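stuck on this:

***
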Amino acid sequence: MDWWIWVALGFVLLAGEVVAPGGFYAVFFGLGALATGLLAAAGWVEPLAAQGTVFAVLSVAALAVFRPLLTKRLRTSASGDAIDNLEGSVARAYGPIDAGGHGQVELRGTTWKARNTGASPLVAGQDCRVERVEGLTLWVRAERGEEG
């Protein structure tokens, strides 16, 4: 196959990743196609079977080595922001919430559904700590020192 077809395929795959992000897969195959095209242009890889093998090996190796690093780095920077992380935040009960019961709490100016995971009930206005978030429900328990 002509080298320029590999280069064109590489650019199409890279553009596809930009236009329709699919979780950092196409970019590695695009880079593999570009590298294969450059190697073919230099005359280092001639038969189509060898080009296909080089493309597959480079693409899968890049995917295996670099994708975990990129996704970890992007995930850390995005989820490390305190605004997005509600766990550990202090909310305030709107009304009484029995132990193991459901109710509503206020957190950062927004009303949330809540489930009391503590052994003691919460009273209206009592502070509680968010233990986890499940969908739009906060799992809370009375703030330490306030359990009765």
User: Anything to note?
Assistant: Helices lie at 3-19, 26-41, 48-79.
